[in-house]
């Protein structure tokens, strides 16, 4: 029996330019996703998705015209909410990108103000949850420390700068995952790719878990520090018997 996976596109929009987002949705012939956005009395922004976006390709549409700081922060919060709702892939769509005019230093002691916004988007989406595809599998580097190696040289790790993380992500993206193994000592995992890239992951501490593999059916491989694992759903099993020992 052949199992076919269906891709699902979800377009959600912030409050930056509702007319433009509606026109884009009409042109694509897709409805705008349900996303509740509100502002508290102290100015904080609240976001909650009103529909299931698990395994979906989510496009977060937001133009930064008007109140740039509020709209940029709103988009970052929407991206974070989509990540925590288990979206498969998240793409930020910015017809007008805030701080784009400050993309270089004109004089000394000036910031490159366009950089933090882009870096925060990378951190919110790619840096902790890079997707490297092999068949129907998508690899998370999530809830754990990690490093990317090539020819025994470390290209980046979980505490690297954004530029190094992006370089490592671009290097691994598109490579096929050929081997996955769990080292005998602890729950350090090794992912080997066909072009020589190696990704190693390990839990933050001896008591932490690491969530590693995600597939469109919703199953996640969760490894515990006590060398037991679960491969069922994205929720932690409540019954201790559902955790299985790792066989070396």
Question: How would you describe the overall organization of this protein?
Answer:
With 248 residues, this protein is α+β, with helices and mostly antiparallel strands. The protein has 2 domains: 119 residues, Rossmann fold; 113 residues, no CATH class. It has a 6-stranded antiparallel beta sheet with strand order 6-7-13-14-15-16, with no helix packed on it. The chain has a 5-stranded antiparallel beta sheet with strand order 9-8-12-11-10, covered by helices on one side. Helix 2 runs parallel beside helix 3 and helix 3 crosses helix 4. The radius of gyration is 20 Å and the shape is globular. The relative contact order is 0.10.
The major pleated sheet works out as: 6 strands, antiparallel
> Could you list the spans in which at least 5 consecutive residues all have pLDDT below 50?
1-5, 122-136
Q: What is the CATH topology of the largest domain?
A: Rossmann fold
Mean pLDDT: 76
**Which class of the largest domain in CATH terms?**
Alpha Beta
- Total DSSP helices: 4
Rg over alpha carbons: 20 Å
- Structural class, please? alpha+beta
Largest sheet, order of strands side by side? 6-7-13-14-15-16
**Which CATH architecture of the largest domain is right?**
3-Layer(aba) Sandwich
Beginning-to-end CA distance, first to last residue? 31 Å
Count of all domains: 2
């Amino acid at each position: 029996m052949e199992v076919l996976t269906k891709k699902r596109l979800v377009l959600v929009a912030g409050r930056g330019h509702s007319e433009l987002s509606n026109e884009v949705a009409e042109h694509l012939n897709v409805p705008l996703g349900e996303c509740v956005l509100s502002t508290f009395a102290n100015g904080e922004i609240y976001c909650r998705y009103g529909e299931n976006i698990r395994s979906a390709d989510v496009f977060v549409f937001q133009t930064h015209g008007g109140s740039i700081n509020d709209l940029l922060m709103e988009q970052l919060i929407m991206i974070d909410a989509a990540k925590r709702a288990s979206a498969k892939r998240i793409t930020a769509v910015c017809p007008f990108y805030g701080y784009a005019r400050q993309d270089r230093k004109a004089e000394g002691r000036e910031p490159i103000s366009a950089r933090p916004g882009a870096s925060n988007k990378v951190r919110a989406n790619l840096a902790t949850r890079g997707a490297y595809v092999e068949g129907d599998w998508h690899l998370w580097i999530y809830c754990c420390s990690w490093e990317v190696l090539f020819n025994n040289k470390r290209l980046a790790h979980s505490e690297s700068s954004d530029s190094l993380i992006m370089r490592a992500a671009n290097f691994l993206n598109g490579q096929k995952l050929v081997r996955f193994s769990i080292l005998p000592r602890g729950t350090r995992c090794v992912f080997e790719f066909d072009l020589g890239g190696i990704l190693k992951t390990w839990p933050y501490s001896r008591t932490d878990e690491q969530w590693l593999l995600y597939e469109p059916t919703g199953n996640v491989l969760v490894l515990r520090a006590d060398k037991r694992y679960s491969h069922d759903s994205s929720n932690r099993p409540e019954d201790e018997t559902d955790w299985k020992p790792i066989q070396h």
